[in-house]
UniProtKB/TrEMBL annotation:
GO molecular function: acyltransferase activity
PANTHER family: GNAT FAMILY, PUTATIVE (AFU_ORTHOLOGUE AFUA_3G00765)-RELATED-RELATED, N-ACETYLTRANSFERASE DOMAIN-CONTAINING PROTEIN
TM region(s), chain numbering: none
Protein name: GNAT family N-acetyltransferase
Amino acid sequence: MITTERLRLRPLTETDVNVDWWVRLHADEEVKRFVGGYTREQAAARLRDIQQQWTQRGHGLCAVTLRSTGETIGRCGLHWWEDFGETEIGWTFARAHWGQGYATEAAQAVLAWGFGSLELTQITAMIHHGNTASSAVARRLGFTSLREDSVLNRPCTVYALARDDHPSPDRH
């Protein structure tokens, strides 16, 4: 579990489908525009894949909850893309929680974990065209544009951040 000033991040598991927050999060039209929607069955399959990645790679996506209330407000974490040979950071939050700095706060903690404990040398962020809010978060975190690509048959900009360029608190 990763804890920040306002958030807790814990590994997603297959059992998260039982509380339906994943399906509700991805049902919002503005969220679905960029990351797609899920039926309950599709969510169960996706969560099984995420749980398997945790088992195989030691990292994956996390549920993000508010420390103050325990409410699950989104997801953030790392995802290994076999097709690209890259580890990507991703974040998705319920619209009611946009604009409050949660994506940046969660992603900063995930980056510190990825570059620190996991010793990754580079992390990418694949952001679909038109997702200006996520592009702004990536730039705020220090990511720079690496290439144009396609993810899940949709055009995106792939941003990258190298461990040596990450402002780690334990580096002098």
